[in-house]
Each structure stands twice: as structure tokens, then as C-alpha cells.
């Protein structure tokens, strides 16, 4: 097993692949480096003498500025490294457009919907329009479980605290996300549960839903009926009869849309799990499929790598706006743009936002950027898409689902049990996490530092995703977890 890795030939630091004790001698390119301090797994150490004010290079790119001199073998982390990022920036389009050779498509067993869309689950979703009826929605979910069958895979409610006392774009975003979920093809049928007096009432929401099949989408206003739970159960019985007509059939993986997100990252995220997801993304895109990368604040510091992979200058300009608009959002609330990384990130070995972002964007693989989406916008272009959403795990994963993702690939070095409206596949960066939290983790990329290659793991992940798309449950699904969260961006009346 390798003890450390120098990721890029130009790097002046290496990353410990396991915890290394002070005094240990490491050999690189004929030179011997003695570690002056204990170096935890995922953390960095200097490969040569470094001066105060010198840039630290990792992934072949600057990740910060050294605040004090460092000898070879010194620990490089938050105590002696600061971000080198500035404020709003001006960018120049310098296209570097890779080409992925098309490959023979593979198939999964999915559901073809009446409107031509593809789903990978056949459930009944209960979508409340407003937080006031969350408890009613969850009560309906509990009592409707009798309609779960071999073909009706789940009945799930998605409570949220919004839908009223909102204004402007904040209210628009809530309505759009709810409409996106109502239209999501993983739901064989949907009950939209309204209260009756809310701002985002059913009649308003219909304007965002657009054309819908009245057999698939039913509406119930709680204030207009005597017993809303009893009436809802009658409706769900009808919806179960409708959704029960769908059966799995072979579908090309070119129809798959996969979201990509990371959370609780550590120093191995950009070395193991994120590159594997990037390898998966390239494979799916080569088969004609689609991936979506989000969490814009965790692109800061690595954004030019995405900008220069934009297929044309229009997409480049949209990506510039994607980045700078999010910075303006931070500044509008008088918040620090570069507050990241989190305490958990730092404990895992990530020192600055550049360090985090350069690892985070490994999930995008090497494909050209084909689309840039605003929050709540659904995918309309095959290939790699960038989506405007924050880094928060639940908000970003819900945004991916709303944009059309059938599955979310979630890499993590710390672990998390959360779910989203679609199957959320947890991918560990290290084996210790996978073994300790086997009830959370679905796929282990920690084996990459134990000898498995990037290509092997990317192939294995691709095959596993096809199994998930064909009906195999991820851990959070098996546990019965369903979560959603909407991006709150305004005053509350």
C-alpha cells in the first residue's frame, strides 16, 4: 500500500494516504524526506523548503499561500496556510475541449412514462404545497403503505416548511422546485396536497406544473373536505391502480441523468471518490447519458477548469455568471465568500477553499460542459451540466433531483445517513468509513489507495449505478429515508 501521493508533477506537497508518524523517512525521486510532525491521513506535507508567501501547489494548481516558512516534511494545513482567492474576478475564455469517444451503450431496467420520460422508480409521491400540512402528509404516507406492492415500490411524503409567507424569487423558487418534483418521472403517480389559503396554493402551482396527466397527478385541498386523510387514501388507491400499470423494461443508459455531489469531504476526496465519480461521468456521457455537477461555492478556486471546458463562449459566459452571481449572493448578506471549508473538512485534511474546490470538481471528469442551469431549471441538453445551487447537502441534492436527476452520487469522507427525493448513493473516500458505517455507505473508493485502479473502480461504479437504476435499493432507501430541502433566499412575512 502506498503511504503518500504526489498528485501532480508540479505539486510541492504530498498527501498522506495513511497516518504517518513524526520521524518517518519517505523517499521520492531519489530524495529522502523526514517527517517533522505526525501527518494524519489525508493531510499534506512539504516536499521541499518553502518560503513564507509562497504558493502551495496541489492538483497542479495553487491552493493557498504559506503564512510561515516550512521545511521538507513539515505539516501544511490551516495553521500555516491561507486562501489566495480574491473577490469578483474577470475571466478569459481559453477553450480546452476534450473529446470522449462514443462507446457502446448499456441498458438498465426502467420505466417508460406516457410522456416519453424515463423513471427508475415507480412510487407514489405526496407533495404538500405548504408546511402547515406536513403532519397530514406524513399521516397519509403512514396509512397508505398498504398500497405498496411488488410494482408500487414506495409511497413517500416530502414535507417542507415553505409555500407561504414568501415573496419574490424566494416564492418562485419554492413553486418551481415543487412543480419539478411533481413532474419527476421516478414518481409513477403524485398526490398534491394543499391547505387552501396558502400563497403557493394548488391553482398557483398548476401554472408551474404545466401540462399533466390527470390520471397521474391528483389534487386535494384539505380545507375543502371533511376528512382529508380519508379522502387522500381514496385518491391514493386510484393512483396505485394507475401507477401499477407500469413495468420495468430495457432502456438505454443514454436516458439516465445522474447528479453529482460531495459532503463531509476529507483529504482523500479529491484522490479517490471524486475522481472515480468523474470516471463514471465520462463513461455515462460516452454512452450518450447526462450528469449534473452542482454546489457552486465549492467551485470557487477551480472554476476556470470548468469554464475552459465549456463547449462555446455562450456557455462560458453563463458559467462566469454562475460563479459571480453566487459571490454577489454572499456579499448581499455581508457574508465572507471564502468561509469554507467546514470544521469536518479541516479535520479530514482540507485546508482552504481552493483545496476543497479542486478536489470537488474532480467529479466532473474530463467531458465538455454542455449546459448551465439556473436553480430549479430542468436538464435539456445531454452531457455534462452545471447547476446553480449551494453546497448544503440536502438543498443541493434536492436541486439535482428537481433538475431531473434519477440518482444522486454523493461522495463523503465523514459519512451521512441523509436521503433525497431520488436514490442517493453514498460513496466513501476511505475504507475505515465504509467499514464503520456500512449501514450508510453503498460503495467504497478507499480501495483505490489499497491497490485498485481508477479505471477499475469507475467501471464497478458504472455497473453498480445500472443495478440501482434497475431497482436495487441504496442504503438510505432500504432504511426508509426520504428528505427534501428548498433553497431559502428571502424574507419571511
Could you give a short description of this structure?
The chain has 493 residues and is an alpha/beta fold. The protein has helices at 134-143, 168-182, 202-209, 228-243, 273-286, 303-307, 313-332, 343-348, 353-360, 393-402, 431-436, 454-469, 475-478, and strands at residues 4-5, 13-16, 25-28, 31-34, 44-46, 55-58, 61-66, 75-76, 81-82, 107-112, 118-119, 123-128, 155-157, 187-194, 217-221, 249-252, 257-262, 290-293, 369-373, 383-387, 407-412, 424-428, 443-444.
Helix run count: 13
Terminus-to-terminus distance: 58 Å
- Envelope shape: globular
Q: Please state roughly what percent of the residues sit in beta strands, choosing from under 5%, 5-15%, 15-25%, 25-35%, 35-45% or over 45%.
A: 15-25%
Mean pLDDT: 95
Strand line-up across the major sheet: 19-20-18-17-21-22-23
Can you tell me the residue ranges where pLDDT is under 50 for at least 5 consecutive residues? Answer: none
The portion of residues assigned to helices is: 25-40%
From the alpha carbons, calculate the radius of gyration and give it in angstroms.
24 Å
